[in-house]
Description:
With 317 residues, the chain is of the alpha/beta class. Helix content is 38%, strand content 15%. It has 11 helices and 10 strands. Strands 1-10-7-6-5-4-3-2 form an 8-stranded parallel beta sheet. It has a two-stranded antiparallel sheet with strand order 8-9.
Amino acid sequence: xxxxxxxxxxxxxxxxxxxxxxxxxxxxxxxxxxxxxxxxxxxxxxxxxxxxxxxxxxxxxxxxxxxxxxxxxxxxxxxxxxxxxxxxxxxxxxxxxxxxxxxxxxxxxxxxxxxxxxxxxxxxxxxxxxxxxxxxxxxxxxxxxxxxxxxxxxxxxxxxxxxxxxxxxxxxxxxxxxxxxxxxxxxxxxxxxxxxxxxxxxxxxxxxxxxxxxxxxxxxxxxxxxxxxxxxxxxxxxxxxxxxxxxxxxxxxxxxxxxxxxxxxxxxxxxxxxxxxxxxxxxxxxxxxxxxxxxxxxxxxxxxxxxxxxxxxxxxx
Length: 317
């Protein structure tokens, strides 16, 4: 006897998977292992970081603070290659709003890191502006709001940096909006982008810092996606963030409270961010950075394993 259509059991449908993010290359960074400084006894030793980031299933890493990983290119190439790792970028810290007077000191710092970054085959240099208040003590070092002349120096000196780094090392600078710096809120990010040459200056959109400072990363990708050359993947805990904002807590102590949290427990949701990035139609690195300084040495790897699995579920193969 044949069952009627109304009584037939429909075939089960396997759960749908998100489209593969073919333009997104995911990685992680020393930051996700609690590393903020070149040398600190509370940090994960660099050999353990390299072992564990590879064990977590990542193929790409950033250099982290200069001096944390070996600075000899030959040795670092050997150490990364034997673990199947490659370098996506180096990171520099700058105070370019102070004008030409800080150029020589800045360039001495930048050139060493740019040279190692190039030697490792990477193409990007992440540029983080200096903090306006001390990251540990909370002491206010300068006005949180730049003057018109400060903005002029910040933008013109950043363009200079972009030109010099490109011409001398063949690298592209990607400026990282960051909490407790002058490039933080969506308004300040837009002002910075409007005043800089797209040929010289791109943006590293950090989803956690942008949310920390009131921004929407999907909206940013839709509004000025052509300026975004690099991504940092990070989430914030909304409850802790509200306490941090209300108490005017500096970024360092906020991180110690756990304001940056393991995905997918925070905001922004990363799947729509990654989908919007894929929609730009360009190749982008998306490097996981879960600020956790300081943290117990056994904490990072389980989080990294879960995070890598979560990113695969978002389409980041």
